[in-house]
Automatic annotation (TrEMBL):
Every Mechanosensitive ion channel MscS C-terminal domain range: 326-387
Protein name according to UniProt: Mechanosensing system component YbdG
Biological source species: Paenibacillus bovis
Residues passing through the membrane, by range: 20-40, 76-95, 101-119, 140-158, 164-191
Gene Ontology molecular functions: mechanosensitive monoatomic ion channel activity
Membrane disposition: Multi-pass membrane protein
Superkingdom in the source lineage: Bacteria
Record-annotated Mechanosensitive ion channel MscS domain positions: 182-250
Subcellular location: Cell inner membrane
Primary localisation category: membrane
Record family assignment: Belongs to the MscS (TC 1.A.23) family.
Gene Ontology, cellular component aspect: plasma membrane
InterPro entries, alphabetized: LSM_dom_sf (IPR010920), MS_channel_C (IPR049278), MscS_beta-dom_sf (IPR023408), MscS_channel_2nd (IPR006685), YbdG (IPR030192)
Keywords: Cell inner membrane, Cell membrane, Membrane, Stress response, Transmembrane, Transmembrane helix
Length: 414
């Protein structure tokens, strides 16, 4: 500054004119120096760092570059120059230093924020991130960082010790608890969800209270994001997964089998004892040949042992078409390539009702993919409905308009 003033005096400038001109020149010089330093930092230093990162064998440092950690850090260079240039302007030194320091604090907050984002992205590249998500914890760290950063900025601007401001926050604790209620509840819920392994990213969960039925795509501090199967997105409060009940289908997906539990209703008026002609036809069915032979031998031996009068079908033991049909379905499922052989397989009768006799299929597919599971289930029941008449059985169905028209045409109805 003294050198500039001497040069200006040589040009004939004195008094206030000389001071103002010297200050303007110095400001322009500092601005030019900041521009030059920023250019060197971004065009040379930053490009060199990016080149080194892109040409090594690691991938995590590429994520740091993508999150612009080094780009944000480069903004410190002009601020440092301005901060150390403040003594040149004694009248404005304190103001310049405070402004530059505030800017540097904000830049450091953005750098740490970008670094945390990069760390989260790197962590997500590992499989453990689906079991132990850390996004909620990172959000807590960010909240604490922003609060501390705000306190430091305010203390720098007013020239007070940050501890004095912190001590004053004690009176505002109740207000802060109210403001950050959801965040505190979410943090506690996140710890419980993670430690108890209750839900992971990628899990299929069902929570009717919130109309959620789909895959978990994100777990944050305050919310769990669920993409429903109709492609809508439901946001569930994290603490709701602790306080309310929900269904997690992960166990089904991990087991490798998905349950089929559906009934076909049989018209009870079509159930009867098997005649000799029916038994002869059943012997031709691949899945029933051995069963019919063994079963008839067992029945005949029982009837002979107990001297059963066979003049009436009511006496002794007999084969029924519903029993043979039930065994056929059981053997059909046992030999089906898409039915899980190591899980429960039952074909059972339920209590009869107004809709006939329910014959329930309880089995597991060996593929949990939704589309394949539904196709398998449809194929099985297509086959069951198609073969039921072979056993002399009629699936139950309430009368339709077509049935009434047929009855009228046959003059069975007035």
């Amino acid at each position: 500054m003294e050198f500039i003033k001497q040069q200006l005096e040589g040009l004939g400038l004195n008094g206030l004119t000389k001071i103002y001109a010297a200050n303007i020149i110095m400001v322009l010089f500092i601005a030019l120096l900041c521009i030059l330093a920023n250019f060197i930092t971004k065009k040379i230093v930053l490009r060199t760092i990016i080149h080194i990162v892109n040409n090594n064998r690691y991938t995590w440092d590429n994520i740091i570059v993508e999150k612009r950690v080094f780009h944000n850090l480069s903004h410190l260079v002009p601020a440092i120059i301005i901060y150390f240039s403040a003594p040149i302007f004694p009248l404005y030194q304190v103001l310049i230093e405070k402004a530059a320091m505030t800017y540097m604090i904000i830049i450091m907050i953005t750098v740490v924020n970008a670094l945390l984002n990069a760390f989260e992205t790197i962590y997500r590249s590992f499989e453990i991130s689906k079991i132990r998500p850390i996004k909620g914890y990172i959000q807590v760290v960010k909240i604490v960082m922003f609060i501390i950063g705000g306190i430091v900025v305010i203390s720098n601007l007013i020239g007070q010790n940050p501890l004095i401001i912190l001590s004053g926050l004690g009176a505002l604790s109740a207000v802060l608890m109210l403001i950050f209620k959801d965040s505190i509840l979410g943090l506690v819920a996140g710890i419980q969800l993670s430690s108890n392994d209750m839900v992971r990213v990628g899990d299929w969960i069902e929570m009717p209270k919130y109309d959620a039925d789909g895959d978990v795509i994100d777990i944050t501090l305050n919310t769990v994001k669920v993409m429903n199967f109709d492609k809508t997105i439901t946001m569930i409060p994290s603490y709701a997964l602790i306080s309310d009940s929900f269904k997690n289908w992960r166990g089904m997906q991990v087991s490798g089998g998905r349950r089929i539990k559906r009934s076909v209703h049989i018209d009870t008026s079509s159930i009867r004892f098997c005649s000799d002609e029916m038994i002869a036809e059943f012997r031709k069915i691949h899945y029933l040949a051995d069963y019919i032979t063994v079963r008839l031998e067992e029945i005949n031996a029982y009837n002979a042992e107990h001297q059963i009068n066979r003049d009436s079908n009511v006496n002794g033991r007999q084969l029924t078409n519903i029993g043979v049909f039930r065994e056929y379905i059981h053997q059909y499922l046992r030999n089906h390539p898409q039915i899980h052989k190591d899980m429960t397989l039952i074909v059972r009768q339920l209590a009869p009702g107004d809709n006939g006799l329910p014959l329930e299929i309880y089995a597991f597919s060996n593929d949990t993919t939704w589309s394949i599971y539904e196709k398998l289930q449809a194929d099985i029941f297509d086959h069951i409905f198609a073969v039921a008449p072979t056993f002399g059985l009629r699936p139950f169905q309430n009368p339709t308009g077509h049935d009434i028209v047929q009855l009228k045409e046959n003059k069975l109805l007035p």
